[in-house]
Protein 1
Amino acid sequence: MANARTPRGLPGATIKYAAAYFIVASLAGKGVWVVRRVVQKPARSSIANRTWEIENPRWGGGELMNYNWHEAQKRAAVPGRRGPGGFVLLFDIGNTHTHLGLATSKRIVRHAEILTSDWQAGLAERRVAEFAGAQRLEGAVLCSVVPPATPLVHASVRKLWDRPCLELRPAAVRLIGIDYPKPATIGPDRLANAVAARHQFGAPVVVVDFGTAVTFDVVNSAGNYVGGIIAPGLSAMTDYLHEKTALLPRIRVREIEGAVGKSTEQAMLIGAVHGYRGLIRQLLGELKRELRSCRLPVVATGGCARLIASRLREITAVDPLLTLEGLRLTWLENHAEVS
């Protein structure tokens, strides 16, 4: 259960207000929270409609966030949360893998992955059918960075279940704003990540997605997606070294101790893993300075997220299902229009 204490600097704080602090902190729902002070108190406001400054100790250093119960309920009670009675099928189509999810209106209940190349090879449809099983589907939602695979997914969903398949595009995004010159050029997986991160951690927030490329996506304090960073992925870097040199081997990326390699493989791992953490740390520092935010939750997802985040204090949380969760939330926002 959440813990709260009466903040300093609020003269005359009574038991009534202390109880209110406790309730608001409990509703924040992210571990142990401490309410510090009232940041915004509208005229004739109820306790729930005030904006509170709260702290989550897991962020360390007394970092704070603002929390408004009414706004949080708006984010949580997305349209359709009571609606679909069946399951929704989620497709996150990446360059190497297609991540599959099966979700209810409340949560993701099953997930798996197949090779994205299976779509072109004619193998994916059977594997998706086996994954979904006999569940009753309300529909499906996808995000794709592989255009040739996208129509194949639509066709498979229609053939197997005769259900609609929503494609995540900027027009379908409603839980965040988009403040970006050409929204159509944003990778849909990046928008899905931003939606889920904003929903779970508030704003501002940064997502680091470790895939074939590593992407940083930024939601500012106003709750708008404003852009990000793209850099080579860790495996892409190590594979490139192997492919472009005569003697450097292909390595399996894993944790490595020490800073002096005693073999070619150790030297490559040190450069890859320790060096990559340095890249991530530096870029996050630049983002924090540009956003001028003393509190900046950073959510990591993707293939090597746990490995890299394990020794990076800058990363707040690792969520391997973040993109799928963004797809689930997008479906809930739009399902009435595509059903």
Note: The first helix runs from residue 15 to 28.
Protein 2
Amino acid sequence: MDSLQPEARAEIGRGLSRGMRALRRIVMVVALAVLAAAIWVYTGMVRSPDFADVAYGQGSPSQRLDIYLPHGAGPFPVIVFAHGGAFAFGDKRPTFHGFRNDVEAMNIAGFALVSINYRMSGEARFPAAVQDMKSAVRYLRANAARYRLDPARVALWGQSAGANVALDAGISAGVALFNDPAGLAPAADDRVSAIVSMYGPTDFLAMDGQLRAAGCAPSDQTHNQADSPESKYLGAKITNIPAIVAQANPLTYAGPATPMLLLQHGSADCTVPPLQSRILADRVNAVAGPGRATLQFRQGATHADAAFDSQPNLATVAGFLRDAFSHSVKSQ
């Protein structure tokens, strides 16, 4: 360095200075991006549950639930919520904005929202997830007084894979396949007043054909493959196990005693085709009477679209649940 001419040393110094300034700018941009992400996550997080990580079963650490209560003394109608995640992932306490909206809207409507974890396909195959949701319902009903809940007004709500779980659990009252002896209240009633299904699958083997008919890309038509979420959930390629597929399809359990259903789907869904909700609505209204199932399409909405967790749509959901609870109490 000492042998360099003054001009060369000055140029090197200027280059180092420019490099440091560029590095500082990069560090600042990265720091701002991290801060923005942290703010987004924080503002999207739901408030702390009133009762957190409550065990409803003794067979798995996954059998836990969170309870979010509205203001007041109660007892409150109960909405038991099952998250989506291709039967393979997800959590009862998501950090996205939609779940925060879900909790707030239900609490404002006067409902307790209970979000459950359930066994994923990597831990246990079907029917474990459905058994878990039923066990949660039974536990909450048996312990309603402890948590200021109304045992006579219980509804289920699921999104995507969680909607399939909720539909199976809610429509199949008394079906022995879904009884879990490891539940903490196995003798309690498993019946519910209503079910809200958002973009849930109802007939696994029909999905690829429906997607093809809807003009969805070949890459979307993969439900029949051996590594599909449905095949992993059931433990084998679904085209090879039609009897087990039938057990996992809510269509199988539709009957005169089916509770009131609200089925919502996006018209542009190329993950779970909209016809999945239509065929269940048609079946239920045929066997349980017109109006037992309400079908609503959100025009232009895709799978898990933010429109479903918007305030206007959640007001629709709350109104449906209010009517369903009123109907169920009058019929008792």
Note: The chain has a mean pLDDT of 91.
Protein 3
Amino acid sequence: MIRTDCLYYIGQKPCHFHKEYKVECNDQCTYYKKIGLRILIIKKAALGDVLRTTPILHSIKKKYGENTHITWLTDPSSYDLLKFNNLIDRVYKFDFKSVLILEIEKFDIMFNLDKDHEAIALASKIIAKNKYGFTMNKYGNLETFNRTGKYALELGISDTINMKNEKTYQEIICEFSELPYSNNFKYILNIPEKTKILDKLINRNKIPNDAKIIGLNTGAGQWALTRRWGKENFTELGIMLIKEKKYTILLFGAESEKEINEYIYSTIQNSLPENLKSCIIDTGINNSVLEFACLVSLTDVLFTANTLGLHFAIAFEIPSVSIYGPLNPNEIDLYGTGIKIIAKSPCLGCYRQSCNYHTFCLSTIRPEFVYEKIIELLENKKVN
């Protein structure tokens, strides 16, 4: 009898154990492992949010057992972050083909951690015995499947509650998913070809192998206006790090940071003597998601806002100095790997995408203070 209920059964092709040991898929197979509960996770975007959701996999295995079969539906842009995750059995891209399949399958448990209309509409249609997270009501509006999701829902509709929140993102999603939470449940990011990618990036960017490397991540994601620290600040910080410590700076950013990074690079270059000009390296704006992750892994300290770069640092346990103003710093768990610098502002955690206050909160964070924290982290390994 073909064991279609085996955790390793694929169907369209032989499983790993047949390929490796030539065992047949029948009652005699000693590698057979019966599928436990079938679980679906819907978490599509953004990239950093997907990565910081991966600790939930430890929580699921803790509560429901190692034999659970986990399917994760995500945005195509996030696929590479999950495709090598050893706790996920299937990663589907959110497209017509995947939705068609998932609407036919039956699950024991579904967790929908996304609030957009496509996700909550699909979540309401998925066949599952137990559902947790966000759904769509008859008015087409956002609701939660379960009462424990009330706080997560309130965070999204009340700036007042959000500004007062003291829970981390991981605590919040475990609470409304009714899963056990532990600070020991870490990010999961597997890159099998990391060494090969790193070799290519080191050669392409001419990164020295004996230098102390500081990453400056100017990216601000969708919060570009309020989460951005300012090109003059990055420039002043970079000059201090190179002139006073002779550290090598890796400049990170996406397409939206092209002009900013060009300004920072050229201004720092022009301020340095000839023997230090090679200490500033612009890594470019066209790196793939996994290339960016690998570049972050090269740094001794990463300085960044709360963006994808920070989550890569957390995943690789790279020390980080991160700044907070419009976003609540309590939501971010650095897992003991970094220092948070929190702006002095009466409207801290406002979650605004534009600032109407007379003093922009992040402007209260001065380059010399950031410099001190980077040195402190490097020399004393002080974290919070």
Note: The chain has 16 helices and twelve strands.
